[in-house]
């Protein structure tokens, strides 16, 4: 419901001028992080330029063996009523 309200926000006269609603997970995450930074200052812009966001697993790590951390599993971490 909240995401649909976000998608409805657009410019009435010319929607191609924005706001842009990116669908890719990497761009959604990038926009979320941008909201946490002072992106209108030089310091915030520099921090945003240093941010690397990927869709999927980036090349140096895609060949490595994946591991499961048992303590981080959703079943163990959530409250019993949330299962």
UniProtKB/TrEMBL annotation:
Ribonucleoprotein found in the keyword field: yes
A Pfam family hit: Ribosomal_L13
Keyword annotations from UniProtKB, A to Z: Ribonucleoprotein, Ribosomal protein
Statement: the UniProt record of this protein carries the keyword Ribosomal protein: yes
Gene Ontology biological process terms, A to Z: negative regulation of translation; translation
Similarity comment: family membership: Belongs to the universal ribosomal protein uL13 family.
Protein name: Large ribosomal subunit protein uL13
Species assigned in the record: Haliaeetus albicilla (White-tailed sea-eagle)
Lineage: Eukaryota, Metazoa, Chordata, Craniata, Vertebrata
